[in-house]
Design a protein that fits this description.
globular; 16 strands; binds S-adenosyl-L-homocysteine; alpha/beta; 9 helices
């Protein structure tokens, strides 16, 4: 959306949220980003060898696998961009062939870089079709020489014909295999495969608002559903009686448990599983919760989750979403089942793109 002035982008996003959710209540002014550039702390590049031997790195054009070259991007972390350009420039001399999706031959598929905004720690993930490749160790050494800011290098093995960037297998080639970052005064460990919010500056604003809306008093039982590495639940833990987190991705749950210990949090437990099934089991067991934070992926939540949430009957549901369309669908169901919208707060997590994040506070009528 860079063709629009930033203020106009914000206005459009706010209007989009109003069109989808406005019938449930007043939409608060969107919280924009003060300096909305170079915010993306996670950058992913695809590689392509042209018939003349030149190698491109960048992003896929939407709806295709044509690689659009990107050397630097106004949205992305500068260090991450520079590392990707360096990797590309080293491929020829190290004779590392780029993977070819049509023939299934070659080695390097993607490079993923994650950077801790506060820690400055940098993770480089080399996504390869094979577990080894010529001069692997020398390649890593040379990369570290050129970018001493890199704190860990991971080889991710993805031999499959798939649209997913990361494969299941992973080997740490250098460093500890994770990076750390600080959010709202807590330290978080992040793995290659764990979800972590991509705009750390706005994430603090998002979580701050979510906490304000939840208005915890130190005694509540809080559920953090779709918890990722446990960020929301651990930020809430100081103000809650007890926190229960649930997340499908195994690596993310491991991170959440490590993050719990790392921050000396004693009142939080994290479970691996489908959030809908977990809520159903809690409702069957007759358990209670006072506040449910939910932060599902773009596809939104499930009927099972929402109807079980209704059975658990928390006083408040704080629904955070990066897709107001599925959020509106889910809120319609909660509304039919007795919940009322008390606040709608859009936050601009993704400046210059069409995406918008929205927090909706619901309470039992
Ligand atoms: N609340 C976290 C993560 C939000 S992203 C944060 O703010 O960082 C959504 C998360 O939901 C991802 O970590 C994803 O792995 C997880 N997820 C997706 N489907 C799920 C399901 N059915 N049950 C539980 N977690 C799921």
């Amino acid at each position: 959306m860079m063709h629009l002035p930033y203020a106009e982008q914000l206005r459009r996003k706010e209007n989009q949220v109003r069109a989808l959710l406005g019938r449930y209540g007043k939409v608060s002014p969107i919280l924009g980003m003060e300096n909305p550039y170079h915010y993306r702390n996670k950058v992913q590049a695809a590689f392509k060898r042209l018939p003349d031997g030149r190698i491109l790195s960048g992003v896929y054009q939407s709806g295709s696998h044509r690689v659009v070259p990107v050397d630097d991007c106004l949205l992305e972390d500068r260090t991450a961009d520079a590392i990707i350009v360096t990797v590309r420039s080293m491929l020829k001399s190290f004779k590392i062939p780029v993977f070819d999706e049509d023939t299934g031959r070659g080695v390097l598929r993607h490079v993923l870089v994650k950077r801790g905004f506060h820690s400055g720690e940098v993770m480089v993930v080399l996504v390869c079709a094979t577990p080894t490749f010529p001069s692997r160790n020398n390649f890593v050494k040379a990369l570290l020489d050129k970018h001493p800011e890199i704190t860990t290098v991971i080889l991710n093995i993805n031999p499959y014909q798939t649209n997913l960037v990361l494969g299941p297998g992973e080997r740490v080639l250098y460093g500890k295999g994770t990076i750390e970052d600080t959010l709202c005064g807590k330290v978080f460990r992040i793995s290659a495969k764990s979800f972590y919010q991509i705009n750390p500056v706005q994430t603090e604003i998002l979580y701050g608002k979510a906490m304000e809306l939840a208005d915890l008093h130190g005694t509540e039982t809080v559920i953090d559903a779709y918890c990722g590495i446990g960020t929301i639940g651990l930020v809430a833990s100081d103000r809650a009686g007890k926190v229960i987190g649930v997340e499908l991705n195994k690596d993310a749950v491991h991170d959440a448990i490590a993050n719990c210990k790392r921050n000396g949090v004693k009142n939080a437990r994290f479970y691996c599983g489908d959030a809908g099934e977990f809520m159903r089991d809690m409702a069957h067991a007759g358990e209670k919760a006072d506040v449910v934070f939910m932060d599902p992926p773009r596809a939104g939540s499930s009927r099972e989750f929402l109807l079980s949430a209704v059975k658990l009957a928390p006083k408040k549901i704080v629904y955070i979403s990066c897709n107001p369309e599925t959020q509106a669908r889910d809120i319609a169901l909660l509304h039919q089942n007795g919940y009322r919208v008390q606040a709608i707060q859009p936050v601009d997590m993704f400046p210059h793109t069409a995406h918008v994040e929205t927090i909706v506070l619901l309470s039992r009528a």
